[in-house]
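Reviewer 2 asked us to include a model.

Predict the structure of this chain.
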Amino acid sequence: MTAESPAQTVQRLFALLAEGKPADAAALFADSVSFSIPHPPGIPWVPEVDSADGMRVFFELLGAHVQPKEFDLRHVIAEGADVVFIGRMVSEVRKTGRDIDTAFVLHTTVQDGRITRYHLYEDTHAVARAYFND
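Predicted model (structure tokens):
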């Protein structure tokens, strides 16, 4: 049996999230996680995260506040344990009904079959515009 590649592990994460399985998705993470999503102050779905359980909380908060609409993965760049995903996503903020339409880059690291890094970069202005009423 061939071991799963880091890219396959993270793509499995995407599938579990699309199926609405935050606990199963969080189980793909290591006990210690480097997590970063730069975001405007006051966005309720980005907590402090440093563990697999923290990732579960993040995924649950994300699902409570945001409804995914489109997810277009355009490039996957893998080198060793690091995998970078480049794409575009559209999500609706449940509170306002407004869409977040943003390009994104997700830098992940997978070690010993578990995700240890989850750094997401997106258009924070688009996030703020969709969430806040101004």
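DSSP finds four helices and five strands in the chain. The helical segments are 6-18, 22-26, 52-65, 124-131. We have added this to the supplementary material.
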